[in-house]
Structure of LL-diaminopimelate aminotransferase:
Amino acid sequence: MALINEHFLKLPGNYLFADIAKKVNAYKVSHPKQKVISLGIGDVTQPLCPAVIEAMHKATDEMAKKASFRGYGPERGYDFLREAIIKNDFLPRGIHLDMNEIFVNDGAKSDTGNFQEILRWDNNIGVTDPVYPVYIDSNVMIGRAGVFENGAWSNVTYIPCTADNNFIPQIPDHRVDMIYLCYPNNPTGTVLTKEELRKWVNYAIHNDSIILYDAAYQAYIRDESIPHSIYEIRGARKVAVEFHSYSKTAGFTGIRCGYTIVPKELTASALDGTARASLNQIWDRRQCTKFNGTSYISQRAAEAIYTPEGRKQVKEVIDYYMENADIMRDSLTRLGYKVFGGINAPYLWVKTPDGIDSWKFFEQLLYGASVVCTPGVGFGPSGEGYIRFTAFGDREDCREAMKRIAEWTLK
Amino acid sequence: MALINEHFLKLPGNYLFADIAKKVNAYKVSHPKQKVISLGIGDVTQPLCPAVIEAMHKATDEMAKKASFRGYGPERGYDFLREAIIKNDFLPRGIHLDMNEIFVNDGAKSDTGNFQEILRWDNNIGVTDPVYPVYIDSNVMIGRAGVFENGAWSNVTYIPCTADNNFIPQIPDHRVDMIYLCYPNNPTGTVLTKEELRKWVNYAIHNDSIILYDAAYQAYIRDESIPHSIYEIRGARKVAVEFHSYSKTAGFTGIRCGYTIVPKELTASALDGTARASLNQIWDRRQCTKFNGTSYISQRAAEAIYTPEGRKQVKEVIDYYMENADIMRDSLTRLGYKVFGGINAPYLWVKTPDGIDSWKFFEQLLYGASVVCTPGVGFGPSGEGYIRFTAFGDREDCREAMKRIAEWTLK
């Protein structure tokens, strides 16, 4: 008799974004003439840049001819892309990576979800709170999170990030084996200075912990003192794996490409105390068994981002989104809202007025201004009393949403 | 202290194809002027067909304009592709599937590797032997395979498929919870009749087992009495998940697209005896957490296979490969080799002469004829004494290889 993995049954049935969609639909049915503006889901809206489009056409044409046709690619990704990553994303910051420390993937969600499986199921985990749900849910599935009680998982250390601590997570007073950090942060849009990040690296070295560092939004950093990579911190290569994505960097949410850095110095113990194992080798074994590389077209598309034209074009789109963020920040701040993030990240984290709870404010905004946000509590207990806005919309929608919120707020 | 998942450390260090590459390189170094022909690795060589290329260009152009740009797609895949799958791959065989029973993926390797994780780690498994290594290795990683002793895993039931039983796997005399079947078979190229497949479905129903059915090579079936899908067997929807791939169907090894069928009737028990869980729902939850859909370009490419032109063009390439198979079968049979498979599959499974072991014959063929095959023992204990040839090469290489083997054999 085949038995189900019972840990999957522990997961709450509903998804945050499905719940939102349901409520938005109910509103639309009762207000069929009203245009709803969504500043909710974190998906991009601007088309791919010309350099990327050109590279994709070229790669497609290569696949049409026998001489240039490509079948299975290397599981770690093509050399042309890994070389471009080293040269452009790391060398300029003084980080020297070997080709074999880079694993090209089909997007950061896969690897942030899958990487935990090469570690024992009974390590304990720590997350900043609020948090991107994939970190926790993927750990629930393997039985690592424990049981869900009173809105929290029993084996997860939640590290609150709220206005009270200026969104700086406090180092735990106990040992945490696996720590998820995401900076610039989704959902709060806040960042960590080098000094703060260094504390985490030192904590991990001291405790023999592993940091799973999600740098998916690093392209949005405008203050150049903020680290783009955890490997800017000395010693991080021994304790951290780092996830990158082209989804938000270059609008690749529909193209599917990203990469993960697993340094050769990164090791972990086996329970029986045998020699330490290389996570690079083990992750490679995992990928060679359960993954067959990313589309050649997508890898050529990613390579094009690093050309001079590609860099310029990608920056223009990022600047466009960040101008949205500026417009929203200014407008909401002028209206008296407390706004966080949105300076080095495409997310704005807004305190609900008068201590209203997240879902209630979500509904007020929907029915009062026909604007959709994401209730902060959907990202974890410390998200209660906040909502998230994304800067990925069209300029016109963004201005119109701010106008409506102003009218509604001042009414 | 973060601990490694110790099951990964149990995996043998070397890969079959890495070992082969090493030996081939050693030969090339000592014979620099000799052209080596590979009939070893199962990768396609012919370019993508025009209908697919056109669809990829069109999809790329859509991504260049704001009005037609697509960001995150549905995790289960776009409706246009799932509708084409239902209409073309299943309805003509009398199989009625619901849209939500289809999960588009980035290739069958991912899902054949990942699906096992939604089942308990202590289910036991059965595989036909020889076997595609991903089935076993992915189960080793979660701790399900036990320990490796004398060339076999302790918790795996190996079901021999050799010339002695005409490559028909015998139903086990004990209960196996999870059964992997791949037909047309990789590596032997043999097929199972409806009557034989029905025995497995009935066995699974009787034992409450789950069949993981890999149909990656179904497009190569020429004898229309052979089942293309396990769902042609009554009752299979209750006990089987089925994996499909465009890799071999349409040369998508570099494009990455396939799909998995998880019927709504497919359920499994929880250990505590609570109500049975729907594998469709649980797989959906897994995919929504650890996967973000397949490239839009790849999905449009797959859709194009189902157009009248696409169908015709794809069939031409399959016919080309199968003509290779015919040429190889005829030639090797005339030389006195015992050849299996190659009629409804792009693989030929050849008995080594005089009981020579697989690796020894591999080396004789390499040094005698400069032709690369795959040693059968690399696919499992029952592969000893066989080698595999693939039909995915160029016609010219295929003829030249047969000529060389003839000269060497008759010397």
